[in-house]
Design a protein that fits this description.
Blueprint lengths: L5 H24 E5 L5 E5 L5 E3 L3 H9 L41 H7 L3 E6 L5 H11 L3 E5 L6 H12 L2 H22 L9 E5 L6 E2 L8 H5 L3 E2 L12 E2 L2 H7 L3 E4 L2 H9 L1 H4 L2 H4 L3 E3 L16 H12 L8 H13 L5 H8 L14 E2 L9
Parallel strand pairs: 3-4, 4-5, 6-8, 6-10, 10-11, 11-12
Antiparallel strand pairs: 1-2, 7-9
Helix pairs in contact: 5-6, 6-12, 13-14
């Protein structure tokens, strides 16, 4: 019988064993997901360098894994750093694929070497742009549907699984579900005839708004309000132009304001001052640090925004205690332990508020430029 070369046999066995261990380790590292386009993805577990290709992902990453974000889609407003995870506001502005503002430079992203790209899928999105960007960078693209607030728990779950942060994602998703259930339970019984009629004023002149079915204005409907501007959204960005005459015809019960600069215009023009909402002091500036509570970007912060709005629209049905609700949200989502003074600053009148504004006019945020 031929002699068996035991040394060779042992070396071969060792190599096979190492290959098996390597394969098992690779299998352990791989994360299999089906994204919201139905694409099956094999992702490296716990991606460390993540690029969110649209503004809502700034909020998703800031709340889920801020230390893994490689950049921002737009610069955060002045004062936002105190309300954001440490260092988040100082990340480089890389732009994005969808939403307002700077378009992403693929060459700059290639240099940054992301190992995961998050893509924004919604009814008017151009998914191929995001997928093409992923191909340019060489990073896998996880497409997530983020349109309605109800989409966010699932998006958190998928992103959490991709990043190895399932429990953290579950906590965030559970908060959103609970906020939706409590607000909807409180306002569901309001008869249609008694629903608060709301005009959503955007841009410095207040003459841009959103259609009633737009995700940009979803928080108003979720809080039980009726958006007075009924139309079909004409673009992804929204910002439908209207005339002051249209707004005067609407004569809303409440005006929700995006731009601090617009608050001054309400007192400069007698026609604005003649509106019921202005006369009765039911004009509310949306808090926006570090991210807007209801829109631009439309994000998970709507879970707090709908509570704030429901308390404004129907205070007898839904009680919103800012000193309780705001710190709880910021602690969970952004890891920021707000004190009472910070909450008051977040909710207080900003320096952009008109000096002649009546004392009962409510301002709920601080000055900052419009965001996607």
């Amino acid at each position: 019988m031929p002699r068996i070369d035991l040394s060779r046999r042992l070396r071969g066995a060792a190599a096979i064993a190492l290959l098996g261990l390597s394969t098992l380790a690779g299998a352990a590292r791989a994360v299999e997901l089906v994204d919201d386009l139905g694409h099956r993805l094999d992702l490296p577990a716990s991606a460390q360098r993540v690029y969110g290709s649209a503004p809502p992902f700034m909020v998703l990453l800031a709340s889920l894994a801020p230390e893994r974000a490689i950049g921002l889609n737009f610069a955060l407003p002045p004062g936002a750093a105190a309300y954001a995870p440490p260092g988040f506001a100082a990340l480089p502005v890389l732009g994005g694929v969808a939403g307002h503002g700077l378009l992403a430079d693929p060459e700059a992203l290639i240099v940054l070497k992301p190992d995961l790209v998050l893509g924004w899928h919604f009814s008017l999105s151009n998914d191929e742009e995001t997928l093409a960007l992923g191909r340019r960078t060489g990073a896998p693209v996880l497409m997530l549907r983020l349109e309605q607030l109800t989409d966010w728990p699932r998006a958190y779950a998928l992103a959490g699984r991709a990043l190895g942060l399932d429990e953290r994602a579950r906590l965030l998703g559970d908060y959103i579900r609970d906020a939706l259930a409590r607000v909807q339970g409180a306002v569901a019984g309001v008869p249609p005839a008694h629903r608060v009629r709301v005009y959503y004023a955007e841009q410095p002149d207040g003459l841009a708004t959103e259609c009633d079915q737009s995700f940009h204005a979803e928080a108003i409907a979720l809080a039980g309000g009726v958006n007075v501007h009924r139309c079909l959204q004409s673009s992804v960005q929204g910002l439908e132009r209207v005339s002051l005459e249209q707004v005067m015809q609407y004569d809303p019960d409440v005006i929700v304001v995006q731009e601090p600069a617009f608050m001054a215009r309400l007192q400069e023009d007698a026609r604005w001052r003649g509106l019921r909402a202005v006369r009765e002091g039911r004009v509310h500036l949306v808090p926006r640090l570090p991210f807007n509570w209801i829109d631009r970007p439309p994000s998970a912060t709507r879970a707090l925004g709908i509570q704030w709005l429901a308390g404004l629209f129907y205070p007898q049905r839904f009680s919103f205690d800012a000193q309780q609700a705001v710190p709880a949200f910021y602690r969970l989502f952004f890891g920021i332990p707000l004190d009472a003074q910070q909450v008051r600053a977040l909710m207080a009148a900003s320096s952009s508020a008109p000096a002649e504004a009546p004392p009962h006019m409510h301002h709920g945020g601080m000055a900052a430029p419009s965001r996607p």
